[in-house]
Design brief:
The complex is a heterodimer.
Chain A lengths: L1 H20 L11 E8 L3 H14 L3 E8 L1 H9 L6 E3 L3 H9 L3 E11 L1 E6 L19 E4 L4 H13 L7 E3 L2 H9 L5 E5 H7 L3 E4 L9 E8 L5 H12 L1 H9 L8
Parallel strand pairs in A: 1-2, 1-3, 6-7, 6-8
Antiparallel strand pairs in A: 3-10, 4-10, 5-8, 5-9
Chain B lengths: L15 H21 L5 H5 L2 H34 L5 H8 L7 H12 L6 H6 L8 H27 L2 H8 L4 H12 L1 H17 L2 H7 L9 H11 L1 H24 L7
Helix pairs in contact in B: 1-13, 3-7, 3-10, 3-12, 5-11, 7-10, 7-11, 8-9, 10-13, 12-13
The chains are: A alpha/beta, B mainly alpha.
């Protein structure tokens, strides 16, 4: 798997180089620049929107995104993938990048996310609380403890003293959501923002214990950024009022002050 | 497979350059895995509780699905090779479809048909049978993707074997059942074996349909490929070690096929 990824990275690098080559300043206009942002999959819709906003505010700048699982992106970065900004869905993954001395400066927390119970539309199994998920016969799907949403799921169970016996531990939050929207699972633990994004295909059930596991999203400009100022400007933009408004509309919480 | 042309058989020299690149295309990534395997921890990594559970489940389900493939695929191959019914061409294309279908599409197809809200699955659920999230679901997903390998291999062997011996046996008074068991099937045993080995290997590597349809739970539905996929999140070294196990199994399968195959079915 790894060599394959390396080839992909090489191909991406080649593309990025090709992009740089053609980025000659347009005559009379501002210099054309490209900003490459590696961002957690759960940020796809919000960051795409913020990218458009950033391009508007910075004429001549093109923002390109690579959205994937945070740990996938982090290992691409440590394998030498060229990027200007990294946005992680959790602090642990960000730490692997900062520990590898790839970050320029300290990461800025831009958002938080908490878990919510997702049930198929209409909540046919009548789930009302976290404790309900331990009900025998109820088919519950969670993330595997190896991925951030699974770690959070474990944390709330421990803190709340609830023991869920899942029928499946998925590798990503989108897989959990898929099992719920298709009706295979009676309930799943996903993020509030996933429930919001899924619209009426799922019914969300909030639970007070969710505040016991809060995921923080840090963003950082990278050491190897082609344009360090532009990279920090993007981080500031996401952390600023416009970023806050887009993120909170999508259901993300404000970072701890 | 055809015996290969002897060396110095008049191939222009330039052919060897792209051929060597072709070899590199396959070998370089495999060497990449070798480079990443943490040899000093190899044994503890592949014998950890979760690795062993995945390995056990993989062997169990791949064996079971190969059994399903043989039970259903042999009669199917016989019909495809010997029957003259109309519409057989279409039928052949349809049953071979999983061969070229992306596995995740196969998984969705299983989900929509046999899942808890699927066309058939909802009926099964009323009867108390559930396939999603169960080991049986894994076997089903594997059989779905691997049966075409057995059918293709066996149908080819049946066509190559021809019908002469069958015709002779019939003129000597053997009934159709006797001809099938005593003449037809013994002739195609090599084709059947290589088909079964291919189906087993395909089942062992099944990932997409399993993940989509059956889920991922240690000891129940998390087969070796799913374990590799999950380990990769936190422990790339373990993922590399387990990948190597799968590569070795695949190599053994290919070696078995090269040792056996074509012999009876050129």
């Amino acid at each position: 798997m790894r060599p394959g990824r390396r080839l992909v990275v090489l191909a991406a690098a080649a593309l990025a180089l090709a992009g740089c080559g053609s980025a000659d300043p347009a005559p009379g206009g501002p210099a054309a620049r490209t900003l490459t942002v590696f961002a957690a999959a759960s940020l796809t819709s919000t960051f795409t929107q913020l990218g458009d906003g950033f391009e508007e505010a910075h004429p001549g700048v093109t923002v390109t995104f690579s959205f994937a699982g945070s740990s996938d992106l982090a290992s691409q970065l440590t394998e030498g993938a060229p990027a200007d900004v990294f946005a992680s869905a959790d602090e642990g993954t960000m730490r692997t990048v900062t520990d590898a001395a790839l970050a320029a400066g300290a990461p800025v927390d831009v958002a938080t996310n908490t878990l919510q119970i997702a049930t198929p539309a209409g909540n046919p199994a009548g789930v009302t609380s976290l404790a309900d998920l331990a009900r025998p016969g109820l088919q519950v799907v969670v993330c595997a403890p190896q991925v951030p949403c699974g770690a959070a799921a474990q944390q709330v169970q421990e803190a709340a003293g609830v023991v869920i016996t899942p029928v499946s531990e998925e590798g990503s939050v989108t897989d959990v959501l898929g099992k719920v929207t298709s009706g295979e699972a009676d309930a799943g633990l996903v993020y509030v923002t996933d429930v919001a994004a899924a619209g009426d295909r799922v019914t969300g059930v909030g639970f007070p214990e969710s505040s016991l596991a809060v995921n923080t999203y840090p963003v950082v400009a990278l050491q190897d950024a082609a344009d360090a100022d532009l990279a920090s400007a993007f981080v500031a933009f996401v952390a600023g009022p416009q970023g806050r408004s887009v993120l909170s509309t999508a259901g993300f919480g404000a970072p701890a002050p | 497979m055809r015996g290969g042309a002897p060396e110095g058989s008049g191939l222009p020299r330039w052919v060897f350059v792209p051929a060597a690149l072709g070899v590199a295309l396959v070998l370089v990534p495999l060497l990449g895995i070798l480079a990443r395997v943490p040899w000093s921890q190899f044994v503890p990594l592949v014998t950890s509780e979760s690795s062993l559970a995945a390995l056990r489940l993989s062997l169990l389900t791949a064996t079971a699905s190969t059994g399903v493939c043989v039970v259903l695929g042999v009669p199917l191959a016989l019909v495809l090779a010997r029957s003259h019914a109309r519409g057989l061409h279409l039928l052949r294309s349809l049953v071979l479809l999983p061969l070229v279908l992306p596995p995740v599409v196969g998984g969705l197809a299983l989900l929509y048909s046999l899942g808890r809200r699927g066309v058939l699955g909802s009926t099964l659920e009323v009867l108390g049978v559930q396939l999603s999230f169960t080991t049986a679901g894994v076997v089903l997903a594997q059989a779905f993707v691997s049966m075409p390998f057995l059918v293709v291999s066996l149908e080819g062997a049946l066509r190559t074997a021809g019908r002469r011996y069958e015709a002779v046996a019939a003129t000597l008074g053997a009934g159709p059942g006797r001809v099938l068991l005593r003449v037809t099937l013994p002739l195609v045993v090599p084709g059947l074996l290589s088909g079964a080995v291919l189906a087993f290997a395909r089942a062992l590597g099944e990932f997409g349909a399993t993940l989509t349809f059956a889920g991922s739970l240690q000891g129940v539905t998390r087969t070796l490929p799913l374990e590799v996929y999950l380990q990769r999140e936190t422990d790339p070294a373990a993922a590399a070690a387990l990948s190597l196990v799968l590569v070795v199994v695949a190599f053994v399968v290919v070696a078995l096929l090269r040792g056996r195959p074509g012999r009876g079915t050129p």
